[in-house]
Design goal:
single chain, two-stranded antiparallel sheet, 6 helices
């Protein structure tokens, strides 16, 4: 077991960091939406999956480096397409309101975080996660008073 851990320490670090960063963003989404929509598990899985596909891509490059016509960027580029499809499934229309765009955007950018971790760009992944949380938390705090003012203006005035 010790030999396995030492031989795979970089992989374990990358996958664990991808999960941890995905969980951080997922916690915020879970708290804001009270468990509705994509939360901790979904964000962690998207980030982990992206890291796994990047690690596979790197391993394939090493194995088939001299193979003519091989393009190692194909796997990461398809992550973007696949997560875009997943994000599209989280967008719903309720009457005249569109819901789930932030969730879709969050899943998409978490795929980028997972890819960054998979390629070993740890600083990029951590800084991006920090910025994601800053956007989600800070903008949510700024939107609340604006929504309240807008709702007050749109309420029908009662006639006496």
């Amino acid at each position: 077991m010790e030999q396995f851990l030492s031989q795979n320490s970089e992989i374990i670090l990358k996958l664990t960091l991808a999960v941890g960063l995905g969980l951080l963003v997922g916690v915020e989404r879970f708290l804001v939406h009270r468990g509705e929509g994509a939360g901790m598990k979904t964000h962690a899985l998207v980030s982990l999956g992206s890291a796994v596909f990047v690690l596979i891509s790197e391993a394939v490059v090493q194995k088939y480096a001299n193979f003519p016509g091989f393009n190692p960027i194909m796997i990461p580029s398809q992550i973007i397409v696949g997560v875009g499809f997943l994000g599209a499934g989280s967008i719903m229309v309720y009457g005249s309101q569109l819901k789930g765009l932030t969730t879709a955007g969050g899943l998409w950018v978490m795929a980028g975080v997972g890819m960054a971790v998979g390629f070993g760009f740890y600083s990029l992944a951590v800084i991006t996660t920090f910025l994601i949380l800053l956007i989600l938390i800070l903008i949510n705090m700024l939107e609340r008073p604006i929504k309240k003012i807008t709702e007050e203006r749109n309420q029908p005035k009662s006639s006496s």
